[in-house]
Amino acid sequence: MQLFRSMAAVVVLAAVASAPASALAREEKVVYHVTDSANAMGALGNVRNHLNASPKAKIVVVTHGPGIDFLLEDAKDKNGNPYDAVVQELSNRNVKFKVCNNTLEARKIERKRVLPEATIVPSGVAEVARLQTQEEHAYIKP
User: What is the homologous superfamily of the domain 29-140 according to CATH?
Assistant: First the structure.
């Protein structure tokens, strides 16, 4: 009887240690896709709330088209609030910001106008796809 209990305990421990443990240990990685700066302040609020609920989440904000505008120097929302302070705050919390170079070129925007917290990538769309397929980021479109 003792041997049976010991074997049963080993089977239960093995089952608990396999699937659920690996699922719990997975890193939370998310890409927020911003294509219109009109909703950028809302998107940044979502990112802040996400980090408040899940402080270890790895978050990347990828922008292209009109979505890059909030990551340009002196950008302000419709109420006149500057974006740079919020971007800097989130960058300090390890949020990564990516700006599409195709958009910069098409709109003839100088690279030096991009906030220093942001990285320029060749293509915003390709970066979203890469993060999803190669780095297993969940996709959020605010």
Answer: DsrEFH-like (3.40.1260.10)
